[in-house]
Design brief:
The structure is a homodimer of 297-residue chains. Chain A has a two-stranded antiparallel ribbon. The first copy, chain A, is an all-alpha fold and 297 residues long. Chain A has a single domain, classed as Farnesyl Diphosphate Synthase. Helix content of chain A is 70%, strand content 1%. The interface between A and B is large, with 58 and 58 residues.
Chain lengths: 297, 297
């Protein structure tokens, strides 16, 4: 059994996801076409498609058909793109660069970026709830309810609020961990759980994937903090050293570089422990966890 | 049979809706509590609750239990509040006053207002898709898919984009009508349709309510334009004459005051024609249409 090279897998997969996303995005001409252009700009071209790849890998364990898992992957990527577009706005992180291109509000304007984020947010739920996603209405309602909880005030957006509030304030590892679990972990957790929901897996499998995803997201966020200190701006396609400049409490400012590296390894091991029940079937998800630890972008 | 006085009905109903909304909104203390405060500020206190009242009235025709129809009403009001919060931002309509109070970004700040809107948007879908909304998963999936389509790029947000694009540009009645159908009509249409979805009504009833809601929303928007010219700032709780100042094409600038009044009456009659199939059961929805024509706030 050969090793799984995640960057290679991701590169092939991202081409397929772009096709799925392009087909779901609105594209008619008309007085609102600038909105459609901004949505496409924000969601296509340049993303790693890591979250849809987690959906893909998790759903494949349960034999879910490609068309179903890719619709859910597309919905997750729309949510991720919307969160980046709003996060980059001048009133929030004020980032001019995203994925090596001007961020959405620089390429268009602030009003269009706000609306494009809103439109991607709604379109993700439309995609999940439509019959093509799964023949069983219970699966579709579950996907919509679980995604909404993951990204709402008690999930991703709650984490973004903590992020804003923690600027120029000394916070401890507990608040930094809560921030990362909500802001990043919740959508990773949904991505891993979505496979179990689509595959109508038993409760233990679903809970194991939920925890795996949450831990993986936390590890991903700490690596993000490390890359902000040590990474290469060209490879990352976004500004580095911006957390320190913004006075943000990161895992690095709390734990130091070596401490943060140890913490990532510890959390990744804790994530991997949740995959034991899947045996050999969990191999591709294990490879994602190892990739997250070693990524340089 | 006495007449139905909608303002009196709305005033009693809004107290009940505030209780339902308050129970659904997050309220825990913690580092993200400012987000929760901004969400409550945006959604509670001061709204007419007209859209939830349409859900209430439509669902009552089909014997839908109060707890179910009010959860859907709450979801609709969350969406309406989110759209107002984002619309009032400096990059969009730049409104400092809403419902007689400082708008959300003035009472808090822009970043918090953007996130509060996003959080209300997600919470609406969470509310619809959870089991408490209806025991049948097909109803919940249908509600989520139908709402998402109504408020996404091909619905409400598409209308907001046309609104922005039509500033300082001469547009005709066709574009103004499309703008109003998307920006206002789509959520009104969902509100009326939601009763039929919750009540698992036959397709003809659903389609009639969908058209009724869409026409009602269009009439509502033209009355809004009339109030912007003729209304009282104190009664409206928001600035007047702002469309003209912003160089927006409204029904008034296209049709004139008398022409707009005739158009409202024509559209309201067309809306009412869709209620004929419901006979006496449609009485309360008919009263809403008459109220929309006569409202002064």
């Amino acid at each position: 059994m050969g090793t799984i090279c995640v960057p290679d897998e991701l590169s092939g997969f991202s081409g397929q996801m772009e096709g799925v996303l392009a087909a779901l995005l609105p594209s008619q001409r008309g007085p609102e076409e600038k909105l459609y252009e901004a949505m496409s700009y924000a969601v296509l071209g340049g993303g790693k498609y890591l979250r849809p790849y987690i959906v893909e890998t998790s759903a494949s364990m349960f034999g879910v058909p490609a068309a179903q898992r890719r619709r859910v992957g597309a919905a997750v990527e729309m949510i991720h793109a919307y969160s980046l577009v709003h996060d980059d706005l001048p009133a929030l992180d004020d980032d001019d660069l995203r994925r090596g291109k001007p961020s959405c509000h620089k390429a268009f304007d602030e009003a269009t970026a706000i609306l494009a984020g809103d439109a991607l947010h709604s379109l993700a739920f439309e995609t999940l709830a439509e019959p093509d996603t799964h023949p069983d209405t219970g699966v579709r309602a579950d996907l919509a309810a679980t995604l909404a909880a993951a990204i709402g005030p008690r999930g991703m957006v709650g984490g973004q609020m903590i992020d804003l509030e923690s600027e120029h304030v000394a916070v401890g590892a507990d608040v930094a961990t809560r921030l990362a679990r909500l802001k990043t972990g919740a959508l990773f957790s949904f991505s891993a759980t979505a496979g179990a929901i689509l595959g109508q897996a038993h409760r233990e499998a679903r809970e194991a994937l939920q925890t795996f995803g949450s831990e993986l997201g936390l590890a991903f966020q700490i690596v993000d903090d490390l890359l902000d200190v040590e990474g290469d701006e060209a490879a990352l396609g976004k500004k580095v050293h911006k957390d320190m400049t913004a006075g943000k409490a990161t895992f690095i400012s709390i734990l130091g570089i070596e401490g943060a590296r140890r913490e990532v390894r510890r959390i990744a091991d804790s994530a991997l422990a949740n995959l034991e029940m899947f045996g050999e079937r969990g191999r591709a998800l294990r490879a994602i966890a190892e990739y997250v630890l070693k990524r340089d972008r």
